[in-house]
Amino acid sequence: MGLLDPLVHVLSVAVMHMPTFPARVQNVAAMALQLPLATLVSDRGLGVWDTASRAWGLAAGSVGTTHHLVLQDDAQLCAGFYLQAQAAIANSPAAAISLMTPAATTWRNRRRYPPGVALIMPRAWCAPFVAWASALPERQKQHDNILVGRWLRRMRLPLVYSTPSIVQHGALPSTIAHRAIAAANYNAAPTSLTTTSNPT
Q1: Domain boundaries, given as residue ranges, for the chain
Q2: 193, 198, 196, 200: which is closest to 82 by C-alpha?
Q3: Residues 122-150, buried b or exposed e (16+ Cβ, 10 A)?
Q4: Which residues, other chains included, contact 122 with Cβ-Cβ below 8 Å and sequence gap of 6+?
Q5: Which of 72, 84, 90, 148 is 20 to 30 A from 138 via CA?
Q6: How many CA atoms lie within 13 A of 24 on its CB side?
Q7: What string of pLDDT tens digits covers the 200 residues of the chain?
Q8: Distance from CA of residue 71 to its chain's centroid?
Q9: What is the pLDDT at residue 18?
Q10: Is the whole model's pTM more than 0.90, yes or no?
């Protein structure tokens, strides 16, 4: 499954949101200052995949875009985040991109499963991913980032990580009992960015 390399990459953005948590509402308001056109996808109490599938599914209606970004509502963004995300796409236009490289001490399977804090995929990949994951048994849909990793390996599609990390996992309590995930080499004001398939 390929993607033509356009001269300009246009990115749509969705934010998975738990509006019943005041701290997350405040964080989303801060994110909106940098991403005013992002679409909020609110939890309906039907599980993680219900929210994630709708967030990734928005790509289908984002006419004119080449890539789609799904953020968690506890993500803390670097300065100039949108431009840095565009730089990551320019580095790896035909790959899934995690904008946060997790520290090895908090994420042992990072080469197989990217953290779900900030993930980009080419728009053309999003609908096939949602269709595949939606057909799985419900017991396999508890962690959307694991589904992304599984699908990428199944389709033999590349996954890369931004260097430095341009997103930090916010210090908010997990809504699904995850332990805290720390970003490796987070830079709150990056001046340059590359991507790598072999995070260190």
Answers
A1: 11-196
A2: 193
A3: bbbbbeebbeebeeeeeeebebbbbbbbb
A4: 3, 66, 67, 68, 93, 94, 96
A5: 72
A6: 20
A7: 333 344 466 899 999 988 888 888 888 999 999 998 899 998 898 988 999 999 999 998 878 899 999 999 989 999 999 999 999 999 999 999 999 888 765 555 556 778 889 999 999 999 999 999 999 998 888 788 899 999 999 999 999 999 888 998 876 555 544 556 677 777 888 878 888 886 65
A8: 5
A9: 84
A10: no
At 172, list the tokens.
Answer: 């908010």
What one-letter code names the amino acid at 63? V
Cα–Cα distance for residue pair 114/146, rounded to 1 Å? 7
- Residue 36 burial (10 A CB sphere; 0-12, 13-18, 19+): exposed
Alpha-carbon span 28 to 16, nearest angstrom: 10
- Fold of the CATH domain 11-196: Spore Coat Polysaccharide Biosynthesis Protein SpsA; Chain A (3.90.550)
**DSSP-assigned beta bridge partners for residue 42:** 17
Model pLDDT, residue 189? 82
Compute CA distances 64 → 61, 68, 76, 107, 176, whole Å.
9, 11, 27, 35, 34
End-to-end CA distance of the chain: 28
Nearest to 54 by CA among 39, 74, 65: 39
Tell me the three state secondary structure of residue 74. coil
